[in-house]
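Exercise 7. Given the components listed, write out the predicted structure of the assembled complex. Treat all entries as one system.
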Amino acid sequence: MSGTSAMIRDGARQAMAWLHGWTGLLLGHILFIMCLAGTLSVFRPEISRWMRPEVSGQSDPIRAINAATNWLSANTTGSAGWYLAAPDGRSNVVEATYDSGGAYFSRALDPLSGAPVARDTLGGEFFYRLHFELELPYPWGRLLASLAAMLMLVAIITGIIAHKRFFKDIFTFRPAKGQRSWLDGHNALGVLSLPFHIMITFTGLLTLASLNMPWGMTAGYGENLMALYSDLTPGAVTKAPTGTKAPLAPIGPMLAQAQRHFAGAPVGRVYIFNPGDTGAVVTVYPVETASIGYLPAEISFDGATGTVLKAWTEQRPAIRTYQTIYGLHMAHFAPLLTRWLYFLGGAMLTLAVASGMVLWIVKRRERAPLSIGNRMLERLNVGGLVGVPIGMVAFLVANRLLPLGMTARAEAEVSVALWSAGAALLLGLALTPKLGWPLLLGLLSLLCVLAAFLAPIWASDVMLVTGNAMLMATAVALGLLVWKHIRRRSAPTPVRRRVVPA
Amino acid sequence: MMLTAGLLYLSLFALAARMQRHRPLLLTTWQKRPFVAHLELAGWTLFGLSLLSLCLWQDSGMALVAWIGLLPLLGGILLLGMTYRPAIPRAGVPIAGLLLVAGLLV
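Answer.
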């Protein structure tokens, strides 16, 4: 009986190991992009700050929103809405999305003057969008990201079941032993941070649930999305524009009143609908940092008179549950130390995915010569696993090198990132892996140094200095990796001899 | 945070030291002491206590998130230390002990 159950157990383990390998392999490169971009997104406002070194002024949220609305009033025509995110301790600009003369803009506005910042860039928003949209048009990027997240959850669960010595492997790493080292590394990265991996994958999947499981919504609301929206946000005030012009009432007193309404919580976002019209509405939301589950609350004012139209705080348990799950994934609540722990967890997940991709090849090469498919995959690993970070660092370098007055500058930065990653991918496919790995890793290391030195390296802003230090640390680590790789290649290969027993 | 981090590190150290492979590196001359036989129990108890200590935080939700983050950090220190500089994880034990005491006092 025990023999049969052991056979079943081993068979199940093998099946799980097979599923773990294939689910990881199928969208492994997509997962790598998502994990790396997601890890960097933990510091989205800080990266944006690094990418706009000219903005050194810090202003309180109310004054910054005031300056932004003054500038927008004077410089936009026929707007349907201004959507503003106030600066906080991490971000030092007003992130504004608005329309003017039929065109849509997304700009960072100076907190003191309210005018757009000279260096037009997406900043950390690029990494954030890349994380779940993958630079693909809606909804394809999000659908692909959802599918990849589902496969990752399957890979995590099957990985746990397939793992024979789960707890022993937490503490075991044997370097310089070929396949054994890759397996140890992959296991340790996966197991040490397992609670984080499960939490971030599950919550990430649920943030896109409305897209990948829309049937509940369609069953309840059909095509009537407005009814769904008004049920979801019963505090929202919608007014059609009257066509009669009226200046926006002073926004400062509205924001101060909103802050009092939110029990002192600072203003986070301000949406102004129909600005310059008697039908203008100003809706204010508090910051999202008070707790893990962001508690939706809003207060709306008549934009022409400044009187309160409606105030509302979310109390429904289902929505609060969703907000907690969403908040866990976004980590807006997290204080500095917890953000670094999120970053560490994300980096370990990224490395677990990458090491799994490499392990697939290493394992098969030690058994027999690689098939054509696996040889292609090996080269794709070189181009993909190093090409993606090359594209990301090229984005930072482009931020420093592109002229400030250039038209569509932010888009040009993204183009540089995508073209660089594409070129690195092609190079990885063209070169033999023995040459491709050190060459592309060396290039990545040099790009990191370049990005750090093109920045004001000893700036007074601690975020600039930290960004530069991180780039330099990455460059040094990659440099050491390349040096070790080259040294190993130049060392004579030991000849393996079979020991014949006497 | 200090109490949780101290308990978690000590638990991971005990769990690693219970394994034959890591015992010489982590326990050096203490390998033959009688307490070695109880390291597994001690390790899991400390692990449980580190989770229980989250109740002492003001916001236990945030505490749990921090614990989830501390696990790879402290485990990573132990793992890399054992591989490259065994003195580091050993030095971590008195530091964790100090954190534990400081956490209890504060």
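Discussion: Chain B has five helices and no strands. Chain B has a mean pLDDT of 90.
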